[in-house]
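Sample A.
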Amino acid sequence: MGLFSRNFDTPGPGVNRDTPRKKGIGRFFELLGRDSGSFFKANLWCAVALAPTSLVVSFGIFSKSVLFTILGGLVGGLVLAPFLAGMHDTVLRAMRDEPGYWWHTYKRAMKNNWKQSLVPGLILGALLSSILMSISFTLDGTMQLSLPTGLCLVLSLLLISMCVPYLWAQLVLMELPLPQLFKNTLLFALGNAPRSLLMAFIQIIYWGLMILLLPVTSIWVLLFGFAFIVLITMMIAFPAMDKVLHIEERLIARREAEENQD
């Protein structure tokens, strides 16, 4: 599958490989406290990239313009995608206790993943802006949804939320052609349905609150909004992926081989 072909020559601080890892909520707060600086910086880039898109999509929704809403989603997906890749790379490195200076590894991740991220970003941007538009138009009475259409809308949002964590994790960890990336993502999402549904509900509730409580939540989104939810979803998704792909085992073996060569 083209696993792990990059990002192993990075100097920088790390965590002793013999240090036992905490689990569950303890591990979550350990990572949040230890790597909060890296999370904040990666999050800030995501928030800055999202800002223009939010304005365009919001204008489209409030002006009842389907064109502006979808266009905002398409362009926003393209702009935000590389930064989401950088965000996921930052979180996954922290979870693996990977050594390295943040800016060095972040630039490497952006360089390696920006092209591959564009199509997923484009698709996700279009789908999510369409769903937001449909929900908004339905709530204000502009559009009437039939029961089958409403059900399809809910299922679409649920499936997207189930797939997104697996998609971005694979994108930054593996080199896959897009058809294989999407196929693997769907298999992971459906093959780990309870885990995937948990991630989906958490994401929907989280981002729903972020939108409903605007502009109050804008400060949180700017500071840690992306990092917080990505850390949660990756802590849920990564064990399922690692069980199948043996990610950490391969990473450790490659790192030791490179150290022995030195």
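Sample B.
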Amino acid sequence: MFGKLKRRLALIYTGIFALILVIVVAATVIIGGVSVIKNEKEMLIADIHDEWREWTGSGELPVDPVMVERGEMMSLLYDGSGRLVVDQMSGSPYAEQIMSMRENWPQEDGSTEILCFENGGEKKFILMGLCRFVTNGTVQGDLYTFVNLEDYYDMAVDGFAFLLLLCLVCIVTAGGGGYYMAAKNIKPLELLFKREHEFAANASHELRTPLTVMSLGIESLQNDPDSKFSPYAEETLRDMQQETQYMSKLTEALLTLARGDEDNVTLQKEKVDLTAVMADICAQLRPLAEQKNLQLVFNGTRRVFSLCDKDKIKQLLIILVDNAIKYSDSGTITAEVEADGMQAVIRVLDEGISITEGEAERIFERFYRVDKARSRASGGFGLGLSIAQWIVKRHGGSITAHQRDGGGTVFTVRLALYR
């Protein structure tokens, strides 16, 4: 139990750390990327103005032809009528793709755009900017300049891979640290629980013998023909016998849960016909239901099999049906077994006390009873459903309780279906 708790806490710690780490890394990457692109855009606009000054001064654009051939930097100059004046792109390996995306080019002075396309199966990113130069209200020219962002893209990919690896290392380290801290924090609780568990197990075990002796002694007195008791003494003996039986059941339940907490109970799994088992349980408990003027009905015509411990499943079904009888004063108790997909479904429906949503969440807690007065009077001690839940969980199934329409409670057990 504590091993699962340690792993769960370690996963929670690791998850929180991973979430924070992802948020920090994502924010850093986004802010860094936006900052770099913004800086590149500003530098590109400044370079275009420098190119224009060089053009007006010397009649040439200062773009290195080698950079054009490599596709690192390109420029196009159009005059005021839209005629191409200077072409420093046609020698570029990306000229065709860039020209095919003419409709995506920026149209306003000082604006920029990032063009994305594939070349040779690789992603290419080109940052382009436009500066429109006007003199006395007349457009002198539109100068487009293109800068390859491939180096930044490669750096981003490598940086992302490095950050991803760093995150994985940090998360694994955090997971180990989280498990260590969880184990350290749980250790005192684990020791305390172990002592309480040992006490409950030892006390339950030690109580079984004296309770058995007391029960046999009381029974001997009641059946002794030579003993003469007053009506008061006979009533006292009956009360003592009932309380002894109650304590014996409580001790047995505590011992069952104590063994279950140790997680060392071995299930003897076999192919079990749940329909037949439920039919037998209903036949066994029907006289008990009839004593309270209750109808106990079993609905199950199809044989449903599951790989489980037959004795534990019998104990589970007895708990559920007996619980329905205890909490019902009239009406019908219905037991059902059916197959639903890959699951075997067992339901016990009664028309007794309805439970609220809050009670449905707590009803499987140890010693929790919806109606404490009725439970004590009927011999219940609030451990039956805890044992039922333990049995179901050990079989890898689930058990739930909810209010029934029209009054009453529905208990639903789901186990793996054997095919």
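B remarks: Confidence is low (pLDDT under 50) at residues 372-377. Residues 150-223 form the longest helix (74 residues).
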